[in-house]
């Protein structure tokens, strides 16, 4: 992941001189599309087994995954207001039982997050075509948790267990970030940015006897194109 971010930054720096002669962008409505990488933070997962009066607490690590989306909004010159639709997807890398530190073998599961956000970004215009910005947004996210399995060998035999049943949940979401807009001409610009994204705790209870709760947080790097009208 560090190598990917280094390459991402290097390309952005190398590309900057080529755009320095472009005219700064002008205010007005715009649309954009972007593609990037989402790096989720490890998350605590709680599962209540009502039938056996037990609670299981796991620590789940997720692999970096795709981050893709688009926006539509209006640039007022100093502030931009926009609506955003984005999607993040990550495979589960490890699942650890926090009670005894046991790590389930061959974890098989994934988490997808579809977010609808309302954002506000503040632009710091200057005499160059490069405009730094910062801001954030709030909205909601629909999270899809797949059937998640792991092999447990603590009993002496390998058991392939269903740890979390598949389900969907919709929760409050938020994000904050910064970046730079590089004008290619008066209507088209390159967007290079970072977002920190998080959700409230989601409850997955398709199996009401064993509901599972978790929240999602991730670091996100993106590159996109913005077109103004």
From TrEMBL:
Name of protein: Outer membrane channel protein
One Pfam family it belongs to: OMP_b-brl
Keywords noted in UniProt: Signal
Signal peptide: 1-22
Domain of life: Bacteria
Occurrences of domain Outer membrane protein beta-barrel (ranges): 9-229
Gene3D superfamilies assigned to the protein according to its UniProt record, in alphabetical order: 2.40.160.20
Lineage: Bacteria, Pseudomonadati, Thermodesulfobacteriota, Desulfuromonadia, Geobacterales
